[in-house]
Design goal:
It is a single chain. By secondary structure, the protein is mainly alpha-helical. It has helices at 2-16, 22-45, 67-78, 98-110, 118-125, 130-140, and strands spanning 50-55, 60-65. It folds into 2 domains: 2-64, no CATH class; 67-140, Cytochrome c-like domain (Cytochrome Bc1 Complex, Chain D, domain 2), CATH 1.10.760.10. It has a two-stranded antiparallel sheet. Helix 1 (2-16) runs antiparallel to helix 2, helix 3 packs across helix 6 and helix 4 (98-110) packs across helix 5 (118-125).
């Protein structure tokens, strides 16, 4: 929805521009629209929710991981505020530092961390890239 709205605003601004630069602007808008549609399709196929932000100046698309949104996947086991022992077996992650969470998630991925939930958590943590691990770690530290 945000992408459609930003495209609409961009097209409006292009229509209000000067006649001499109108053709150049139309070409730029077409390129932006094309890139946003491609990125939107890629993002829709991702298993993790991410925000998509468009940098208009250079028409590059930047993906920004949202720790709170990613944590929603974790909350079903760890609790909305991180105060549950996942499946009654894990440590309570509420009040962990971002560094401790990040080390734990990376440890699950490389097999150097974890107890009885190691196998389950490896599958979950492996879905995250480095940027998403940092974002969700930072969010968990605020719980």
């Amino acid at each position: 929805m945000k992408i459609v709205l930003s495209i609409g605003v961009t097209l409006f601004l292009v229509a209000c521009g000067e006649e001499s630069s109108n053709e150049v602007q139309k070409t730029e808008v077409k390129e932006i629209v094309k890139k946003e549609v491609i990125v939107q399709k890629v993002v829709e196929k991702e298993s993790l929710p991410i925000k998509v932000t468009r940098a208009v100046a250079d028409t590059k698309v930047v993906q920004v991981a949202d720790g709170a949104t990613i944590y929603k996947l974790c909350g079903s086991c760890h609790g909305v505020d991180g105060s549950k022992a996942a499946l009654g077996k894990s440590q309570i992650i509420k009040a962990w530092s971002a560094d401790k969470v990040e080390k734990a998630l990376n440890g699950y991925i490389d097999g150097s961390y974890g107890g009885v939930m190691k196998g389950l958590m490896k599958g979950q943590a492996s879905k995250l890239n480095a940027q998403e691990i940092k974002a969700v770690s930072k969010y968990i530290s605020t719980l």
